[in-house]
Amino acid sequence: MRKTFVLFFSLLAASNQVRAQENDTIVVPSTLEIGIELSGPLIYFADSSLFNLEMRLAYRLNRKYHLVAEPGIGRYSYSQYNYSYKSGGFFLRVGADINLMRTKGDPVNHFAGLGLRYGIALFSQETPSASWSGYWGEHSFSVDPRFVHAHFLEVSGGVRGEVVKNIVIGWSIRARVLLYQSAGSGARPAMIPGIGTLSKSISPGFSYHLIWIIPLPG
């Protein structure tokens, strides 16, 4: 008899646990996400030497994982009394976002987590003019545009929240590491689209996105 009661209450507890899990389960539909990064155009109004425009295209597999592609363009120019430099081109980052939010009652379009990306940049750089003065007088030269390709990795952390139905805003802090650039050490680019300036081994970045979420049938 005692064994019968133990078995009965064990089955009852298991049944209640299953029902609780079913009640807590939130159906997370697959979605497409189309977004634009806003900080690049805003920075351009304050500093016209640097322009960056990029999009966010993503597919939500489930509550935790998003597949992401971020295409964009970037331009940079610099000049002083004896030197000028220009670069510009395209970039693409691809990877995934990992949602670390675990509370089952959270809205499905909220996000707090990490991102991992591989990136490639295709761009040109040139030195339209450069000059210096020495013992033998003043000398000047220029370097014609040269095509460069670069590869990099990116790690990010950020949050996103749904402000109105299917409209999300969010920000992220990013760290990028250059893997390779074809210009060589003698012509190291001052700025690479999709990465930024290369003054340090790790290039920091900040992104602010406005995103439209499109639920998919299924």
Which keywords apply here?
8-stranded antiparallel barrel; mainly beta; Porin; two-stranded antiparallel ribbon; 218 residues; single chain; disordered N terminus
Protein architecture, described:
This protein is mainly beta and 218 residues long. The protein has a single domain (29-215), classed as Porin (Beta Barrel). It contains 2 helices and 10 strands. The strands form 2 sheets. It has an 8-stranded antiparallel barrel. Mean pLDDT is 83; it is low at 1-24.
Write a compact overview of the structure shown.
14% of the residues lie in helices and 62% in strands.
Q: What is the CATH T-level topology?
A: Porin
Low-confidence stretches: 1-24
Biggest beta sheet attributes: 8 strands, antiparallel, barrel
What general outline do the C-alpha atoms trace? elongated
Q: What is the CATH class designation?
A: Mainly Beta
| Percent of residues in helices | 10-25%
The tally of structural domains comes to 1
Secondary-structure element pattern, one letter each:
HEHEEEEEEEEE
Strand fraction? over 45%
Q: What is the tally of helical segments? A: 2
Would you tell me the structural class of the helices and strands?
mainly beta
Count of individual beta strands: 10
Main sheet strand line-up? 1-2-3-4-5-6-7-10
Q: Give the C-alpha Rg.
A: 25 Å
CATH architecture: Beta Barrel
Q: How many angstroms separate the termini? A: 49 Å
Mean pLDDT: 83
